[in-house]
Design brief:
Blueprint: H1 2-7, H2 10-27, H3 32-46, H4 57-80, H5 87-95, H6 103-115, H7 123-131, H8 133-136, H9 141-153, H10 159-167, H11 174-239, H12 243-259, H13 268-285
Length: 296
Amino acid sequence: MRSEALAWPPVSAQAASLLEEAADLLVLHRDFAAAVERCEAGCDSLGPGSGPGPERCLFITSSAEVKCSLCVVGIQALAEMNRWREVLSWVLQYYHVPEHLPPKVLELCILLYSKVREPQVMLEVGSSWLRDQTNKSLPEYGSLLELYLLHVLLPLGRFEGAEELVRGCDVFDSEQQLAFLGTICESRCQWTQREEMHLAAEEQQDAATESVLGALSQKLLTMLTLLRRALRSMSSHFYLLPYKKMLLATFLLYLVVVRLDPASPTSLPFIYKLVQLFRQAWAAVFSPIHRRPIQD
């Protein structure tokens, strides 16, 4: 590659040298960030390019090839760093519009976003590229249309758009069109079956959820019933308590704790009286008279 770079114009030779460095960093040193930096420097050195004059055809061709190769290496380096979300915007900053993407770059982008299960990213980009009249004359057009069909349209369920694209394509003969239409029909059937299975699974999950909620609500209702019975029993039980004796005991307890010194001999009769009152209250509360009768 270095001998070829020496035969190119200075700008293209500089980009080719940066391409060689980027490839070494990607493959040999596994320094992906540095590889992306070399690719960006190489693409920036090439610039937007001039018009396709006859005297510059060779230079433009070589520059386009180097630029495409730099983007290919950059895409691979970004993917290795798990920065695949940046790939499309990173590429478009050098090609500006999807229609100008080289076939190899578009192919890598489609495969990359299909692998990470984000084919919708390439939906409009691929459609714009395939509608461009200049791109239809490229030898890679048929393979890219097939790639776009299998990895973007069908996974997204765009079956009508896929059929229109195949029927309107002049690259495919009638036999190829029939084969692709059969693939689209088969994919549509599989999509419908998955939708039906997903709907049935959701219905089963909803039924199971309702069953669990029904069981929980029944348990909650039972607990509330038992709580109501317990509160009713406690209210009737406290209704039979001797309130006067309980108030007197509370008042004496206040006198003993707050106003009396337990170490003083004068407080002993009050403490003794308090103990007696508590015993009487205990006997009154738990005596057979105040117990609720047991019903059969």
